[in-house]
Structures
1.
Amino acid sequence: MGSTGMAAAGADADGERRNGLDVAGVVVLGACAAWPLITAAVRGGRPEGMLLAVLAVAAGYAAGRIGGTLLPVAAPCVWALAGAGLAVAVPHLAPGPQMSTPLGHAGATAAVLALSAGAACCAAWAATASALRIALRLLAAGIAVTAAVLGSPAGCVAGALVLLCSLAAVRVRRRGPGLILLALAVAGVAATTWAVARDALPDGLTGSLEGRLSAHRVDLWRDALGMVRQHAGLGVGPGRFGELSTASGESLLSDGKPHSAPLQLAAEQGVVGALLLALAFGWVLYALWRSPRSTPVVLTAGAALTAVAAISSVGNALSFTAVSVGVGLLAGTATARPLAPGTPPRTSDAHPHEDRLSR
């Protein structure tokens, strides 16, 4: 009776923590949806794009939680195949060699393929049969090769890094330090983007980065930073960057975006908008830390989401609904509690009551 009562109490406490985590997520996403409405009411603009992105992430997260609970192997496998198929089949998403492709499509392709590789690796860790695990990891490797064939070197590198991180995760006993490193990596990419926009790096390094990123993209970042300096409080209004950016107006292929999620939100919604984006990413990492799934699944999903965050810091990936849905799907899958028979038992590092600091 005593052990049964303790188990029931532990389950209740675990349920309360998960409910609290979900409530925090609703609050964060609600703030991300409400703030652009506020800034649009004051500054003008079109908040529909931001609202659609928030809705896509929320819907993907809910679907990921359901799929990860009922079908922890099959669901992420299907999503991995769907993402890879989308990158191959939809011509406007794949970067390709054509000169008329806007800047954002290459980043969207890389992000979708990174998420697909992460989903395949998460499915591999959830599988019990060694042959199935090998097949799913080969699928992840095939996704990275597909990125190379599509002409997306960023997607190829991101997919390969996700696969390598997933394989290395088996040796990691504490998820907390791993997630902290992933957060620092994203912060480093965002800080570098900001430094390039401010021209704060050494001339040689700035020239090298401009050569890889294109001078037009850097000019867009500098326009965005100028807007932040002038309108740090509320920004210029959602969707108004293209109207006010000199670099955007001079390009025939411009889509009216600065191709950096942090800079876009800071320019259009003020510093608060950029902080809300950082808060949303921090909540995802915290949800992964509290996840009942095993550490390899958590770190694999974290690596894929980190790759998407890094790509979004230097590109326009989050403006694509497929990417936003994929982010939610992977995050939901990695934080779900599997119920399917044959699911590998949770390891102690994934138990919410043990070794909190190490997780």
Note: DSSP finds 14 helices and no strands in the chain.
2.
Amino acid sequence: MSVSAASHSGAAPYAPPTVGDAPLPPPTPSSQDFATILEKIDPSTISYASADLEDPLPTISQAHTRQVLDQAAQILRSGQVVGMPTETVYGLASNALDSAAAQRIFRAKNRPQDNPLIVHVSSLKMLRSMLKDNEIPEVYNDLIKTYWPGPLTLLFPRSSLIPNDITCGQATVAVRFPSHPITRALITACNLPLAAPSANSSGKPSPTLASHVMDDLAGKIPMVIDGGQCSFGIESTVVDGLRVPPAILRPGGVTYEQIRLVKGMESVQVYKKHFTDIAMEQAPTTPGMKYRHYSPEAEVVLVEYIRPSTSKQEQENGGATTAQYSVIKNEIKRMREEGKSRFGILRTSFNNSCASTASTSGPLNGISSNSIYCTSDPSVIEFPLGQGSKPEDVARELFRGLRYLDSQKVDCIFVEGISEEDEGLAVMNRIRKAASRTIA
């Protein structure tokens, strides 16, 4: 359980502990069963005074934060794994230079052995130390200056320091410099790069809350750090700048529109939109290319985006809401005839008449009850992802919505699609991977 600690004054830049001042020892169970530790950290207790990325050190203003980071770092240095928050989704971290530690990730998640892991660094100095010839390819200079730290992963030539288990035998390694203060400070505390896929059971919706990690992995891993809800809510954008032309292999928090404005990236292409590569899909260089992902237990049905009518009357009646919602209602009627009885809808477009009438009696599975739309039909639960015209809001709530509706034991989850502009490209990428069926 989390233990609070009073803030202390005179905070100094953080440095990894030496042997003499090491924190509590990590758990050393005789089997793979753990009494998983859950510790909460306030991200605001970690700060960075400088924007320099060469070798930055965090300043920590609370003793409890320092203690939790040191304990987690020692668990990681011992070859075990830790669930940690990032700005994208929660990650399951291990020492990226340790083959046995990487295998603990695969076992805890039940992850396919040919699905590569992304490596996270806390400095450009650390990045160079693990690259072939210790050099950052020039093609990435402007991308790094513009979007690191942040939700952007880049492919680099791999050195012999990186085990095959991390790259699944590929000649490249995917690396990210995260912006979340807890992630950055934990990597610094370990003084090691950390491999970290999403901290969920493989194939399930990615976790955006510590409670999601505990739902999937409690008893399978030693520790989870709770840093609150992830701000982006979907995984990082993956760019391969070693290809000609450069390619976005997975859309994410940094958009196609943003990347193509960066020098050297004007001709960037999006995988599955501008080109396909069957060989790369069978032997992927990055996660998210080969396997179905993000799927809850319930069936997921995507109702494709319907562009709002220019008709003034239809706009006043909700536009896309009316069209997509009508499709969903008709499909629910049809599925009821087949014996299905309980349904969820992830709303991305709605009018003022859809205001919540739910009570405010307390949270439901981490979700405030006044966030859930009541309907005249008690067998239908509507969860608002946000306006489809604000894809960044939809991205933040998507996985949380899928997990919530799944916890309500619905037979089917309908998702209203959104336009694939800006962050909408990443949102629709994730929904399509989760959906077993699409209605166009």
Note: The CA atoms of residues 283 and 427 lie 24 Å apart.
3.
Amino acid sequence: MIMRPDDASVARNMIEEVGAIISTWPCNSQNRDHCVATLARVQHTDFLWPMCIREVAHISTLITYTSKHSVEVQVNVMSENILTATLWCVPLLLKNMDKVLEVPPVVYSWQEQEEEGQKQYKTQKLERMETKWRNQDVVQPVLNPEPNTVSYSQSSLIHLVGPSDCILHSFVHEGVTMKLTDEVAGIMAARHCKTNLVIASVNAINFHDKIRKGCIKTISGHMAFTSNKSVEIEVLVDANSVADSSQKRYRAARAKLSQKKKKREREKRFEEGKGRYLQMKAKWQGHMEPQP
């Protein structure tokens, strides 16, 4: 596709769409109830170069591993090799979108590919379970915070989910949620650094629950780590129904650590962020080195 002025942050929507398509196809290839795959996790995303208006984007996908109830998909967006991403999708029954179907096994090109995929599956499953256990806290606004503190840069957006935000069966398109998390992260980074920034890498996004049409989404975030040239931000997505007062607010994506251990957990989060930063820096240096 050719990039247009209204395609800002379109890469997130593109990788989610192609990931859902390639994940749905093998699940419907057998004689069984029809399903549709939905995005459950973005494993990692590296933005190698900016994508500009009028450039041509080419998206390619490959299924790299299947478990009983999920599919790992590798997505590459080519425009001077700007982006690579790894997604995890799960197939949902069309007649009952709350039921997860089993995934048919895939034939791997080599044994190491299956072993590596199984290792990645176990790792991401443990991390998703861990973030789901930490889903009860809410980012509370702080009055008159001191400059350059975590409270000073934290930001929130409130969004009413409309029909244009949804796919079939009135559930929110995950790409819409990712775009809003980008906006919150951008606001926070600009507020902290007093300048414009671009997203260089997405460590992981966990989707814990579906968001339905008519819900109010609250997207909030706070700083996790800063280096001399980059910042790491944690973003939380909560949802609650406008029409149904009996439905309580729930965590739809990501997580927040306990406020009771705020100081200690912030220090822990900083050290974890520092480790991820050093890994990402080494990876980027490998991308930028001239190839023989």
Note: Helices lie at 10-27, 111-133, 150-153, 174-193, 262-288.
